[in-house]
Fold this sequence. Notes:
Number of strands: 12
Protein name: ABC transporter ATP-binding protein
Shape: elongated
Domain ABC transporter: 325-566
Transmembrane segments: 31-52, 64-82, 140-159, 165-183, 248-273
Domain ABC transmembrane type-1: 29-302
Subcellular location: Cell membrane
Amino acid sequence: MTTPDKQRSRAGADVLLTALRRNAGAMTWGTVLMGMYQAGETAFPIALGLIVEHTLRDRSLGSLALSIAALAVIITTVSLSWRFGMRILQKANTTEAHRWRVQVAACGLQPVARDVDLKSGEVLTIATEDADQTADIIEVVPLLISSLVAVLIAAVALGMASVHLGLLVIVGTIAILSILSVMSRRIGTSTREQQARVARAGAKVADLIVGLRPLHGFGGNHAAFLSYRKVSTEAKSQAITVARVNGAYAGAALALNALLAAAVTLTAGWLAFDGRITIGELVMAVGLAQFIMEPLRLFSEMPKYVMIARASAERMALVLAAPAVMTPGTERLSAGGDLEIDSVRYGSLRELKFHVSAGEFVAIAAYQPRAAADLTSILAMNVPPDAYEGVVRVGGRETGELSIEAVREHLLVNPYDGEIFAGTLRTNIDPAGAGRMISEAVEASMLTDVVALHREGLDHGVRDRGANLSGGQRQRLSLARALAADADILVLRDPTTAVDAVTEQLIARNIAKLRRNRTTIVITSSPALLDVADRVLVLDGGVITADDTHRNLLTADENYRLAVAR
């Protein structure tokens, strides 16, 4: 049986392989150029050794000039290959990170939600930091190969001078990588845990920002901040652990590389003293011993970056490879239509039944907030049809038979806490830029005073989450957006809870006027909205207990009068 950890690991490996396949061309050119860079760097001490060898032996100005020209070629090759190689790799890295960010964001924005137990703050971290670290694999592989090229060239050059030196480099490199590969596994595990804790801290911050005003209202801000402090402290502790592991890894790599370089230098000195290699070969060996530390450092760091990239890829796979909450149908709807709830059982709803005809304005007075929330979730298609009993029909068709896009083209559910985005009043009302019914929606939602307050009018800037707007202004802005969409069936939940009674009366009349002959459902306890509705459905105990006009219910139903009268 395949465990979840193995499934995630395999999905993470698939993410890395996809990144490598998509950038095979750029990585090939980058590897060639970085290989030329490392070869040029390796050739420099070799050339110096040859210059010393031939100058001492031939004492020829021509040979010296030729040697200097060869050094100039090597330096030029090193400079240009590094510049263009890194340009290619970094461009591919940046482009690939952008692709993953878009892909993760698309999973969060698509009509069918993914079955992932992650908060928005965690998904944000995955779409930013993890996407960047996963894309780093595009630079890691070419640098790994080019560093290997440098080590092999150095080993061959030293082997030609003395077999002992060549074997020492090869055996030493294998030993270093074996030790560091074991250490890198702990880095991957620690990094994965750190990323998860940082993501949880980010999600907690997002939750606090959303609920900051209510928290201040009932004095719960101190407890909330203590909760965040605990999560943040856990993230800090894990970050310190990762830093210690990385420090130990870097220190071990540096010490082992220096030890190998010292061993090569001392061995070369002993061979030269014994007369088994020449002075020129000694100069080459000493130069290579100093040079080889850089490619060995890069080579030894690559396992760490591979583990970090894999840990990030596995976290991205949590979103990308997660199954959809539901499998949507493929049928579409014609314009207009009615809405029917037939024997629905979900959460607090018990055999809920009602029917709203096309063009009708119906208000639902829900005595229990939980019932209102459950009904809103079902109508918004946030709950898949197989998660509840009963059937929801739109335009006579069951929602399970329809594509999510088709349902949302005709049915718009606007929650009471509609999100406000950074931008302008206009872009919040009309995000798609269709330009339809903006002025009518502004007037109906009584947002005209907000527009008139600012010289820019509808182009007045709005901060993220509407931070520069009051609660009532944010609610009216959200209502204006819902009305401007001009959906065939519009469902509003508590659209006027943050406005005063006079404004509420005006908004209620405006909605009824603007939505005349358009199917409208308002889940509310507002007397103003209940009064303008064609009829009111009373939702109590998960079922419809009454169906009449607002004024008739006020006269005949004492419980209703107590629930909605203000």
